[in-house]
Fold each of these.
Amino acid sequence: MRRAWLTGTTVLVAAGVLTGCSPAQLSLVAAYNGDDGKPWIMLAPCGRNDITSVRVSSWPTGPDRSPHAPGAGQESGWRSGFDPGIGGGSLPLFEPPASWSAEPDGEQRILPGHQYIAEFYSPEDGAYYGQVYFTAEDLAGLEPGEVWADDRAMTRKEFREHRAEQC
Protein backbone atom coordinates (compact mmCIF):
# COMPACT_ATOMS: atom_id res chain seq x y z
CA MET A 1 0.00 0.00 0.00
CA ARG A 2 2.80 2.40 0.88
CA ARG A 3 4.47 1.67 -2.45
CA ALA A 4 1.23 2.47 -4.36
CA TRP A 5 0.83 5.72 -2.41
CA LEU A 6 4.46 6.69 -3.12
CA THR A 7 4.09 5.90 -6.83
CA GLY A 8 0.81 7.86 -7.06
CA THR A 9 2.31 10.84 -5.26
CA THR A 10 5.38 10.79 -7.50
CA VAL A 11 3.19 10.74 -10.63
CA LEU A 12 1.09 13.68 -9.35
CA VAL A 13 4.16 15.74 -8.47
CA ALA A 14 5.77 14.99 -11.84
CA ALA A 15 2.57 15.98 -13.67
CA GLY A 16 2.40 19.22 -11.71
CA VAL A 17 6.01 20.07 -12.48
CA LEU A 18 5.60 19.31 -16.18
CA THR A 19 2.43 21.34 -16.58
CA GLY A 20 3.73 24.21 -14.48
CA CYS A 21 6.88 24.82 -16.52
CA SER A 22 5.42 26.55 -19.55
CA PRO A 23 3.27 29.67 -19.46
CA ALA A 24 -0.24 29.24 -20.84
CA GLN A 25 -0.83 30.15 -24.49
CA LEU A 26 -4.10 32.05 -24.83
CA SER A 27 -5.94 33.49 -27.84
CA LEU A 28 -5.67 37.11 -26.68
CA VAL A 29 -4.48 38.74 -29.90
CA ALA A 30 -6.60 39.58 -32.94
CA ALA A 31 -5.39 40.51 -36.44
CA TYR A 32 -7.49 42.68 -38.72
CA ASN A 33 -7.47 45.14 -41.60
CA GLY A 34 -7.25 48.76 -40.48
CA ASP A 35 -9.15 51.65 -42.02
CA ASP A 36 -5.82 52.62 -43.59
CA GLY A 37 -5.68 49.31 -45.50
CA LYS A 38 -2.76 48.03 -43.43
CA PRO A 39 -2.83 44.90 -41.27
CA TRP A 40 -3.26 45.67 -37.56
CA ILE A 41 -3.10 43.65 -34.35
CA MET A 42 -5.06 44.06 -31.14
CA LEU A 43 -3.23 43.01 -27.96
CA ALA A 44 -5.79 42.15 -25.27
CA PRO A 45 -4.15 41.00 -22.02
CA CYS A 46 -6.31 39.80 -19.14
CA GLY A 47 -7.69 42.51 -16.86
CA ARG A 48 -5.19 45.32 -16.47
CA ASN A 49 -2.17 43.06 -16.86
CA ASP A 50 0.98 44.49 -18.39
CA ILE A 51 2.84 43.10 -21.37
CA THR A 52 6.64 42.97 -21.31
CA SER A 53 7.43 41.81 -24.86
CA VAL A 54 5.76 41.47 -28.25
CA ARG A 55 6.83 39.44 -31.28
CA VAL A 56 5.61 39.21 -34.87
CA SER A 57 7.20 36.50 -36.98
CA SER A 58 6.52 34.55 -40.15
CA TRP A 59 7.56 31.52 -42.15
CA PRO A 60 6.56 30.10 -45.54
CA THR A 61 3.44 27.94 -45.49
CA GLY A 62 3.29 24.50 -46.98
CA PRO A 63 3.79 20.88 -46.02
CA ASP A 64 6.38 20.31 -43.32
CA ARG A 65 6.93 24.06 -42.85
CA SER A 66 7.11 25.55 -39.39
CA PRO A 67 9.04 28.31 -37.66
CA HIS A 68 11.30 25.60 -36.25
CA ALA A 69 12.09 23.83 -39.56
CA PRO A 70 15.74 23.94 -40.64
CA GLY A 71 16.35 27.00 -42.79
CA ALA A 72 12.92 28.51 -42.03
CA GLY A 73 14.52 31.83 -41.11
CA GLN A 74 12.70 35.02 -40.26
CA GLU A 75 11.36 36.63 -43.40
CA SER A 76 8.98 39.28 -42.06
CA GLY A 77 8.39 40.56 -38.55
CA TRP A 78 9.87 42.20 -35.45
CA ARG A 79 10.35 41.65 -31.75
CA SER A 80 10.41 43.97 -28.78
CA GLY A 81 12.74 43.68 -25.85
CA PHE A 82 11.49 43.17 -22.35
CA ASP A 83 9.98 46.60 -21.90
CA PRO A 84 8.22 47.30 -18.61
CA GLY A 85 4.55 48.19 -18.57
CA ILE A 86 3.43 47.85 -22.18
CA GLY A 87 -0.35 47.91 -22.02
CA GLY A 88 -2.84 46.37 -24.42
CA GLY A 89 -4.29 48.10 -27.45
CA SER A 90 -4.15 48.15 -31.23
CA LEU A 91 -1.24 48.95 -33.51
CA PRO A 92 -0.27 48.52 -37.15
CA LEU A 93 1.30 45.07 -37.63
CA PHE A 94 4.67 46.46 -38.73
CA GLU A 95 4.77 49.73 -36.77
CA PRO A 96 5.50 49.11 -33.10
CA PRO A 97 5.56 52.30 -31.02
CA ALA A 98 8.89 54.13 -31.06
CA SER A 99 9.03 53.89 -27.25
CA TRP A 100 9.31 50.08 -27.47
CA SER A 101 12.78 48.66 -27.99
CA ALA A 102 11.66 46.80 -31.15
CA GLU A 103 14.03 45.20 -33.64
CA PRO A 104 12.82 44.49 -37.20
CA ASP A 105 13.41 41.08 -38.79
CA GLY A 106 13.28 40.86 -42.58
CA GLU A 107 10.69 42.67 -44.66
CA GLN A 108 8.23 44.91 -42.87
CA ARG A 109 5.18 43.98 -44.91
CA ILE A 110 2.80 41.04 -44.97
CA LEU A 111 3.96 38.39 -47.42
CA PRO A 112 1.57 36.10 -49.30
CA GLY A 113 2.14 32.40 -48.72
CA HIS A 114 3.44 32.97 -45.18
CA GLN A 115 2.07 32.01 -41.79
CA TYR A 116 2.32 34.74 -39.15
CA ILE A 117 2.23 34.70 -35.39
CA ALA A 118 1.71 37.83 -33.32
CA GLU A 119 2.21 37.22 -29.62
CA PHE A 120 2.86 38.97 -26.36
CA TYR A 121 4.15 37.85 -23.00
CA SER A 122 2.61 38.88 -19.69
CA PRO A 123 4.42 37.90 -16.49
CA GLU A 124 1.32 38.61 -14.37
CA ASP A 125 -1.39 36.27 -13.05
CA GLY A 126 0.78 33.19 -13.43
CA ALA A 127 2.50 34.34 -16.66
CA TYR A 128 0.99 33.68 -20.08
CA TYR A 129 1.38 34.29 -23.80
CA GLY A 130 -1.34 35.93 -25.87
CA GLN A 131 -1.17 34.93 -29.52
CA VAL A 132 -2.80 34.64 -32.92
CA TYR A 133 -1.77 32.73 -36.05
CA PHE A 134 -2.87 34.12 -39.43
CA THR A 135 -2.02 34.49 -43.11
CA ALA A 136 -2.45 37.30 -45.65
CA GLU A 137 -5.26 35.18 -47.08
CA ASP A 138 -7.03 35.04 -43.69
CA LEU A 139 -6.98 38.83 -43.47
CA ALA A 140 -8.11 39.23 -47.09
CA GLY A 141 -11.19 37.14 -46.30
CA LEU A 142 -12.35 39.32 -43.41
CA GLU A 143 -15.54 41.36 -43.73
CA PRO A 144 -15.50 44.98 -42.49
CA GLY A 145 -15.58 45.00 -38.68
CA GLU A 146 -14.26 41.42 -38.35
CA VAL A 147 -11.00 40.29 -36.75
CA TRP A 148 -9.05 37.05 -37.04
CA ALA A 149 -8.51 35.29 -33.71
CA ASP A 150 -8.47 31.70 -32.48
CA ASP A 151 -8.11 30.42 -36.09
CA ARG A 152 -11.35 32.03 -37.32
CA ALA A 153 -13.06 35.26 -38.29
CA MET A 154 -15.23 36.90 -35.63
CA THR A 155 -16.73 40.27 -34.80
CA ARG A 156 -15.02 42.56 -32.31
CA LYS A 157 -17.82 41.83 -29.84
CA GLU A 158 -17.24 38.08 -30.26
CA PHE A 159 -13.51 38.69 -29.68
CA ARG A 160 -14.23 40.57 -26.44
CA GLU A 161 -16.44 37.67 -25.29
CA HIS A 162 -13.76 35.18 -26.35
CA ARG A 163 -11.14 37.15 -24.39
CA ALA A 164 -13.34 37.06 -21.29
CA GLU A 165 -13.60 33.27 -21.59
CA GLN A 166 -9.82 32.93 -22.04
CA CYS A 167 -9.06 35.04 -18.99
Amino acid sequence: MPDPSEHKQTVRRAFTEQATAYAAKTSVSDPKRIARLVDAAGVTSTDSVLEVATGPGHVAFGFADHCEGVVGVDLTRAPLQIARETQRERETGNVDFVRGDAEDLPFPPDAFDVVVCRLALHHVERPRRMVREMARVCRPNGTVAIGDLVVSEHSGRAEYQNTFERLRDPSHVRALPISELIDVVTGRGVEIDHLETGEVVQNVEDWLATAETPEPRAVDVREMLREDAEADLSGTRPFWRDGELFFSQQTAIVAGRLLE
Protein backbone atom coordinates (compact mmCIF):
# COMPACT_ATOMS: atom_id res chain seq x y z
CA MET A 1 0.00 0.00 0.00
CA PRO A 2 1.40 3.47 -0.88
CA ASP A 3 2.65 5.65 1.94
CA PRO A 4 -0.28 7.98 2.86
CA SER A 5 2.19 10.79 3.54
CA GLU A 6 3.29 10.69 -0.11
CA HIS A 7 -0.25 11.18 -1.32
CA LYS A 8 -0.76 14.04 1.13
CA GLN A 9 2.21 15.74 -0.46
CA THR A 10 0.47 15.29 -3.82
CA VAL A 11 -2.69 16.88 -2.38
CA ARG A 12 -0.75 19.82 -0.96
CA ARG A 13 1.03 20.36 -4.26
CA ALA A 14 -2.19 20.14 -6.30
CA PHE A 15 -4.19 22.52 -4.14
CA THR A 16 -1.30 24.95 -3.81
CA GLU A 17 -1.02 25.17 -7.59
CA GLN A 18 -4.76 25.39 -8.27
CA ALA A 19 -5.84 27.28 -5.12
CA THR A 20 -6.96 30.46 -6.89
CA ALA A 21 -8.63 28.74 -9.84
CA TYR A 22 -10.37 26.24 -7.57
CA ALA A 23 -11.68 28.98 -5.26
CA ALA A 24 -13.17 30.80 -8.25
CA LYS A 25 -14.84 27.73 -9.76
CA THR A 26 -18.62 28.18 -9.87
CA SER A 27 -19.43 24.58 -8.95
CA VAL A 28 -17.34 25.01 -5.77
CA SER A 29 -18.57 28.46 -4.72
CA ASP A 30 -22.22 28.25 -5.86
CA PRO A 31 -24.33 29.40 -2.85
CA LYS A 32 -27.26 27.19 -3.88
CA ARG A 33 -25.12 24.05 -3.78
CA ILE A 34 -23.68 25.07 -0.41
CA ALA A 35 -27.18 25.80 0.91
CA ARG A 36 -28.20 22.22 0.13
CA LEU A 37 -25.47 20.93 2.45
CA VAL A 38 -26.43 23.47 5.14
CA ASP A 39 -30.06 22.34 4.88
CA ALA A 40 -29.08 18.67 4.96
CA ALA A 41 -27.11 19.22 8.18
CA GLY A 42 -30.10 20.84 9.87
CA VAL A 43 -27.84 23.36 11.57
CA THR A 44 -29.25 25.66 14.28
CA SER A 45 -28.21 29.04 15.62
CA THR A 46 -26.57 27.52 18.72
CA ASP A 47 -24.50 24.88 16.90
CA SER A 48 -20.72 24.74 16.65
CA VAL A 49 -19.65 23.45 13.23
CA LEU A 50 -16.45 21.92 11.91
CA GLU A 51 -15.81 21.84 8.17
CA VAL A 52 -13.18 19.26 7.26
CA ALA A 53 -11.05 20.05 4.18
CA THR A 54 -12.44 23.58 4.01
CA GLY A 55 -10.22 24.72 1.12
CA PRO A 56 -11.07 28.38 0.36
CA GLY A 57 -13.79 28.36 3.00
CA HIS A 58 -16.93 28.76 0.88
CA VAL A 59 -18.84 26.11 2.84
CA ALA A 60 -17.64 27.45 6.20
CA PHE A 61 -18.98 30.91 5.34
CA GLY A 62 -22.25 29.35 4.20
CA PHE A 63 -22.67 27.71 7.61
CA ALA A 64 -21.54 30.82 9.50
CA ASP A 65 -24.76 32.60 8.57
CA HIS A 66 -26.80 29.94 10.40
CA CYS A 67 -24.82 28.85 13.48
CA GLU A 68 -22.91 30.08 16.49
CA GLY A 69 -19.43 29.36 15.16
CA VAL A 70 -17.50 27.50 12.47
CA VAL A 71 -13.97 26.11 12.31
CA GLY A 72 -12.57 25.21 8.90
CA VAL A 73 -9.59 22.85 8.82
CA ASP A 74 -7.43 22.05 5.79
CA LEU A 75 -4.16 20.34 4.98
CA THR A 76 -2.87 23.04 2.61
CA ARG A 77 -1.79 26.59 3.39
CA ALA A 78 -2.64 28.25 0.06
CA PRO A 79 -6.44 27.78 0.16
CA LEU A 80 -6.47 28.63 3.87
CA GLN A 81 -4.82 31.93 3.01
CA ILE A 82 -7.64 32.66 0.55
CA ALA A 83 -10.20 31.75 3.22
CA ARG A 84 -8.58 34.08 5.76
CA GLU A 85 -8.43 36.93 3.24
CA THR A 86 -12.13 36.46 2.53
CA GLN A 87 -12.81 36.46 6.27
CA ARG A 88 -11.06 39.79 6.65
CA GLU A 89 -12.97 41.27 3.70
CA ARG A 90 -16.32 40.03 5.01
CA GLU A 91 -15.45 40.80 8.63
CA THR A 92 -16.98 37.46 9.61
CA GLY A 93 -16.38 37.07 13.34
CA ASN A 94 -17.68 33.57 13.97
CA VAL A 95 -15.33 31.66 11.65
CA ASP A 96 -11.82 30.42 12.32
CA PHE A 97 -9.45 28.57 9.99
CA VAL A 98 -6.72 26.17 11.10
CA ARG A 99 -4.30 23.85 9.38
CA GLY A 100 -4.70 20.15 10.08
CA ASP A 101 -4.99 16.64 8.70
CA ALA A 102 -8.48 15.23 7.99
CA GLU A 103 -7.26 11.78 9.03
CA ASP A 104 -5.92 13.07 12.37
CA LEU A 105 -8.03 16.08 13.33
CA PRO A 106 -6.47 18.43 15.91
CA PHE A 107 -9.55 18.54 18.15
CA PRO A 108 -10.72 16.62 21.23
CA PRO A 109 -13.63 14.14 21.15
CA ASP A 110 -17.19 15.52 21.13
CA ALA A 111 -15.97 19.03 20.29
CA PHE A 112 -18.61 20.00 17.68
CA ASP A 113 -22.36 19.76 17.19
CA VAL A 114 -22.07 19.40 13.40
CA VAL A 115 -19.17 18.04 11.34
CA VAL A 116 -19.29 18.40 7.56
CA CYS A 117 -17.13 17.79 4.53
CA ARG A 118 -17.74 18.67 0.88
CA LEU A 119 -15.90 17.57 -2.26
CA ALA A 120 -12.92 16.14 -0.39
CA LEU A 121 -13.52 12.48 0.45
CA HIS A 122 -12.36 11.40 -3.01
CA HIS A 123 -8.97 12.99 -2.30
CA VAL A 124 -8.11 10.76 0.69
CA GLU A 125 -6.63 7.27 0.54
CA ARG A 126 -8.40 6.14 3.71
CA PRO A 127 -11.98 7.48 3.61
CA ARG A 128 -13.08 5.29 6.52
CA ARG A 129 -10.36 6.77 8.70
CA MET A 130 -11.39 10.29 7.73
CA VAL A 131 -15.06 9.63 8.55
CA ARG A 132 -13.99 7.96 11.79
CA GLU A 133 -12.22 11.19 12.75
CA MET A 134 -15.26 13.24 11.80
CA ALA A 135 -17.39 11.05 14.08
CA ARG A 136 -14.83 11.22 16.90
CA VAL A 137 -14.96 15.01 17.14
CA CYS A 138 -18.76 15.15 16.79
CA ARG A 139 -20.82 15.03 19.98
CA PRO A 140 -23.29 12.16 20.47
CA ASN A 141 -26.58 12.98 18.72
CA GLY A 142 -24.73 15.55 16.67
CA THR A 143 -24.77 15.60 12.88
CA VAL A 144 -22.25 14.28 10.36
CA ALA A 145 -22.81 15.37 6.74
CA ILE A 146 -20.75 14.59 3.64
CA GLY A 147 -21.20 15.85 0.10
CA ASP A 148 -18.99 14.38 -2.59
CA LEU A 149 -18.65 13.08 -6.11
CA VAL A 150 -20.09 9.61 -6.58
CA VAL A 151 -19.53 7.05 -9.32
CA SER A 152 -21.38 4.12 -10.84
CA GLU A 153 -22.37 1.15 -8.70
CA HIS A 154 -20.81 -1.02 -11.43
CA SER A 155 -17.10 -1.42 -10.69
CA GLY A 156 -15.80 -1.28 -14.26
CA ARG A 157 -17.73 1.89 -15.04
CA ALA A 158 -16.71 3.43 -11.72
CA GLU A 159 -13.05 2.71 -12.39
CA TYR A 160 -13.26 4.21 -15.89
CA GLN A 161 -14.37 7.54 -14.38
CA ASN A 162 -11.89 7.39 -11.52
CA THR A 163 -9.12 6.71 -14.03
CA PHE A 164 -9.74 9.85 -16.07
CA GLU A 165 -10.31 11.85 -12.87
CA ARG A 166 -6.85 10.76 -11.62
CA LEU A 167 -5.25 11.55 -14.98
CA ARG A 168 -6.67 15.04 -14.76
CA ASP A 169 -5.67 15.52 -11.09
CA PRO A 170 -3.37 13.04 -9.29
CA SER A 171 -4.74 14.21 -5.93
CA HIS A 172 -7.98 12.39 -6.82
CA VAL A 173 -7.91 8.90 -5.31
CA ARG A 174 -11.34 7.37 -5.76
CA ALA A 175 -14.89 8.65 -5.75
CA LEU A 176 -17.18 6.09 -4.13
CA PRO A 177 -20.47 4.67 -5.35
CA ILE A 178 -23.42 5.78 -3.22
CA SER A 179 -23.76 2.35 -1.60
CA GLU A 180 -20.16 2.47 -0.37
CA LEU A 181 -20.49 6.07 0.79
CA ILE A 182 -23.50 5.05 2.86
CA ASP A 183 -21.60 2.07 4.26
CA VAL A 184 -18.61 4.25 5.20
CA VAL A 185 -20.86 6.72 7.04
CA THR A 186 -23.10 4.22 8.81
CA GLY A 187 -20.03 2.20 9.78
CA ARG A 188 -19.02 5.07 12.03
CA GLY A 189 -22.31 5.03 13.92
CA VAL A 190 -24.26 7.58 11.90
CA GLU A 191 -27.97 6.98 11.35
CA ILE A 192 -28.70 8.52 7.96
CA ASP A 193 -31.79 10.69 7.74
CA HIS A 194 -30.94 12.64 4.59
CA LEU A 195 -29.79 11.46 1.17
CA GLU A 196 -29.92 13.49 -2.02
CA THR A 197 -28.22 13.34 -5.39
CA GLY A 198 -27.29 15.91 -7.99
CA GLU A 199 -24.86 16.57 -10.79
CA VAL A 200 -22.22 19.02 -11.95
CA VAL A 201 -21.84 19.56 -15.69
CA GLN A 202 -18.18 20.20 -16.51
CA ASN A 203 -16.74 21.94 -19.54
CA VAL A 204 -13.78 19.64 -20.17
CA GLU A 205 -11.29 22.34 -21.14
CA ASP A 206 -12.17 24.56 -18.18
CA TRP A 207 -12.03 21.52 -15.87
CA LEU A 208 -8.57 20.57 -17.17
CA ALA A 209 -7.35 24.16 -16.92
CA THR A 210 -8.40 24.45 -13.26
CA ALA A 211 -6.20 21.47 -12.38
CA GLU A 212 -3.37 22.66 -14.65
CA THR A 213 -3.28 19.18 -16.19
CA PRO A 214 -0.12 18.67 -18.26
CA GLU A 215 -0.97 18.36 -21.94
CA PRO A 216 0.13 14.73 -22.41
CA ARG A 217 -2.30 13.66 -19.67
CA ALA A 218 -4.97 16.04 -20.92
CA VAL A 219 -4.78 14.33 -24.31
CA ASP A 220 -5.46 10.98 -22.62
CA VAL A 221 -8.39 12.42 -20.66
CA ARG A 222 -9.98 13.88 -23.78
CA GLU A 223 -9.61 10.58 -25.59
CA MET A 224 -11.18 8.65 -22.72
CA LEU A 225 -14.14 11.05 -22.68
CA ARG A 226 -14.56 10.83 -26.46
CA GLU A 227 -14.63 7.04 -26.21
CA ASP A 228 -17.08 7.35 -23.32
CA ALA A 229 -19.35 9.55 -25.44
CA GLU A 230 -19.44 6.86 -28.12
CA ALA A 231 -19.68 3.73 -25.95
CA ASP A 232 -21.25 4.82 -22.60
CA LEU A 233 -18.36 3.56 -20.46
CA SER A 234 -18.83 5.42 -17.16
CA GLY A 235 -22.25 7.00 -16.80
CA THR A 236 -20.86 10.54 -17.07
CA ARG A 237 -22.63 11.01 -20.43
CA PRO A 238 -20.08 13.16 -22.31
CA PHE A 239 -21.57 15.38 -25.02
CA TRP A 240 -20.65 18.20 -27.38
CA ARG A 241 -22.21 21.67 -27.34
CA ASP A 242 -21.13 24.36 -29.79
CA GLY A 243 -18.02 22.34 -30.56
CA GLU A 244 -16.98 21.97 -26.91
CA LEU A 245 -16.90 18.74 -24.90
CA PHE A 246 -18.80 18.41 -21.60
CA PHE A 247 -19.57 15.63 -19.15
CA SER A 248 -21.60 15.18 -15.95
CA GLN A 249 -20.21 14.34 -12.53
CA GLN A 250 -22.77 12.78 -10.21
CA THR A 251 -22.85 14.01 -6.61
CA ALA A 252 -24.49 12.95 -3.36
CA ILE A 253 -25.11 14.38 0.10
CA VAL A 254 -25.39 11.96 3.00
CA ALA A 255 -26.23 13.28 6.47
CA GLY A 256 -27.44 11.88 9.75
CA ARG A 257 -27.31 11.72 13.51
CA LEU A 258 -24.32 10.26 15.34
CA LEU A 259 -25.67 7.61 17.68
CA GLU A 260 -24.49 7.54 21.28
Amino acid sequence: MSINNPMAANGPIILFDAVCVLCSANAQFILKHDKLAHFRLASIQGDVGASLYQMHGLDPTDPVSIIIIDGNTMRRDSDAVLSIYENLGYPWRFVGVFRVIPSFMRDPIYRWIARNRYRIFGKRETCWVPSAEYKSRLL
Protein backbone atom coordinates (compact mmCIF):
# COMPACT_ATOMS: atom_id res chain seq x y z
CA MET A 1 0.00 0.00 0.00
CA SER A 2 1.40 3.45 -0.85
CA ILE A 3 0.49 6.57 1.08
CA ASN A 4 2.63 9.70 1.06
CA ASN A 5 4.23 10.18 4.47
CA PRO A 6 6.90 12.83 5.03
CA MET A 7 7.73 11.45 8.52
CA ALA A 8 9.21 8.33 6.92
CA ALA A 9 11.85 10.32 5.03
CA ASN A 10 14.57 9.41 7.59
CA GLY A 11 14.13 5.66 7.37
CA PRO A 12 11.49 3.06 8.05
CA ILE A 13 9.19 3.49 11.04
CA ILE A 14 7.90 0.43 12.88
CA LEU A 15 4.54 0.91 14.59
CA PHE A 16 4.10 -1.55 17.44
CA ASP A 17 1.78 -2.26 20.37
CA ALA A 18 3.73 -1.11 23.46
CA VAL A 19 1.38 -2.74 25.98
CA CYS A 20 1.80 -6.18 24.38
CA VAL A 21 4.58 -8.15 26.08
CA LEU A 22 5.50 -9.95 22.84
CA CYS A 23 5.47 -6.74 20.79
CA SER A 24 7.56 -4.86 23.35
CA ALA A 25 10.08 -7.70 23.51
CA ASN A 26 10.29 -7.63 19.72
CA ALA A 27 10.84 -3.84 19.78
CA GLN A 28 13.66 -4.29 22.30
CA PHE A 29 15.19 -7.03 20.14
CA ILE A 30 15.04 -4.79 17.08
CA LEU A 31 16.70 -1.87 18.86
CA LYS A 32 19.46 -4.12 20.22
CA HIS A 33 20.21 -5.86 16.90
CA ASP A 34 19.69 -2.94 14.50
CA LYS A 35 23.36 -1.94 14.62
CA LEU A 36 23.00 0.57 11.78
CA ALA A 37 19.99 2.25 13.45
CA HIS A 38 18.01 1.63 10.26
CA PHE A 39 14.63 1.60 12.02
CA ARG A 40 12.74 4.10 14.13
CA LEU A 41 9.90 2.89 16.30
CA ALA A 42 6.64 4.43 17.40
CA SER A 43 4.18 3.01 19.89
CA ILE A 44 0.65 2.74 18.53
CA GLN A 45 -0.45 4.06 21.92
CA GLY A 46 1.58 7.28 21.47
CA ASP A 47 0.48 10.36 19.55
CA VAL A 48 2.80 9.85 16.56
CA GLY A 49 2.19 6.11 16.31
CA ALA A 50 -1.59 6.46 16.68
CA SER A 51 -1.68 9.16 14.01
CA LEU A 52 0.39 7.10 11.56
CA TYR A 53 -1.62 3.96 12.29
CA GLN A 54 -4.84 5.83 11.62
CA MET A 55 -3.36 7.45 8.49
CA HIS A 56 -2.95 3.93 7.10
CA GLY A 57 -6.57 2.99 7.73
CA LEU A 58 -6.09 1.15 11.03
CA ASP A 59 -7.72 1.85 14.38
CA PRO A 60 -5.08 2.71 17.01
CA THR A 61 -7.49 1.70 19.80
CA ASP A 62 -7.51 -1.82 18.35
CA PRO A 63 -3.95 -2.55 17.20
CA VAL A 64 -4.29 -5.61 14.99
CA SER A 65 -0.91 -5.61 13.27
CA ILE A 66 2.63 -4.36 13.38
CA ILE A 67 3.24 -2.08 10.41
CA ILE A 68 6.31 -0.58 8.79
CA ILE A 69 6.15 2.69 6.94
CA ASP A 70 9.06 3.12 4.54
CA GLY A 71 8.68 6.19 2.37
CA ASN A 72 5.45 5.71 0.45
CA THR A 73 5.24 2.00 1.24
CA MET A 74 3.41 0.38 4.12
CA ARG A 75 3.90 -3.26 5.06
CA ARG A 76 1.86 -5.14 7.63
CA ASP A 77 1.40 -8.59 9.10
CA SER A 78 4.00 -11.21 8.11
CA ASP A 79 5.47 -8.97 5.37
CA ALA A 80 6.30 -6.37 8.04
CA VAL A 81 7.94 -8.95 10.30
CA LEU A 82 10.00 -10.42 7.47
CA SER A 83 11.03 -6.97 6.29
CA ILE A 84 12.28 -6.08 9.77
CA TYR A 85 14.41 -9.18 10.16
CA GLU A 86 15.75 -9.00 6.60
CA ASN A 87 17.05 -5.52 7.41
CA LEU A 88 18.72 -6.43 10.70
CA GLY A 89 21.62 -8.01 8.86
CA TYR A 90 23.41 -11.29 9.52
CA PRO A 91 22.19 -13.74 10.82
CA TRP A 92 18.65 -12.34 11.15
CA ARG A 93 18.24 -11.63 7.44
CA PHE A 94 17.97 -15.37 6.81
CA VAL A 95 14.43 -15.21 8.21
CA GLY A 96 13.65 -13.88 4.72
CA VAL A 97 13.70 -17.48 3.51
CA PHE A 98 10.08 -17.61 4.71
CA ARG A 99 9.13 -15.39 1.77
CA VAL A 100 8.99 -18.60 -0.28
CA ILE A 101 5.76 -19.22 1.62
CA PRO A 102 3.09 -17.02 0.02
CA SER A 103 1.62 -14.30 2.24
CA PHE A 104 -1.86 -15.82 1.93
CA MET A 105 -0.41 -18.75 3.91
CA ARG A 106 1.82 -16.76 6.30
CA ASP A 107 -0.67 -14.05 7.23
CA PRO A 108 -3.33 -16.27 8.84
CA ILE A 109 -0.67 -17.59 11.23
CA TYR A 110 0.49 -14.05 11.97
CA ARG A 111 -3.10 -12.88 12.51
CA TRP A 112 -3.89 -15.78 14.85
CA ILE A 113 -0.87 -14.90 17.00
CA ALA A 114 -1.80 -11.20 16.86
CA ARG A 115 -5.40 -11.89 17.95
CA ASN A 116 -4.23 -14.04 20.86
CA ARG A 117 -1.06 -12.19 21.86
CA TYR A 118 -2.39 -10.76 25.13
CA ARG A 119 -3.77 -14.11 26.25
CA ILE A 120 -0.61 -16.04 25.29
CA PHE A 121 2.15 -13.55 26.13
CA GLY A 122 0.47 -11.05 28.44
CA LYS A 123 -0.33 -7.38 28.49
CA ARG A 124 1.49 -4.62 30.36
CA GLU A 125 -0.34 -2.20 32.61
CA THR A 126 1.63 0.65 31.05
CA CYS A 127 3.48 1.06 27.78
CA TRP A 128 7.05 -0.18 27.56
CA VAL A 129 9.58 2.68 27.64
CA PRO A 130 13.05 2.14 26.14
CA SER A 131 16.31 2.78 27.95
CA ALA A 132 17.96 6.16 27.47
CA GLU A 133 20.35 4.86 24.79
CA TYR A 134 17.42 4.14 22.46
CA LYS A 135 15.16 7.13 23.17
CA SER A 136 16.37 8.99 20.07
CA ARG A 137 15.03 6.16 17.87
CA LEU A 138 11.50 6.33 19.22
CA LEU A 139 8.98 8.80 17.86
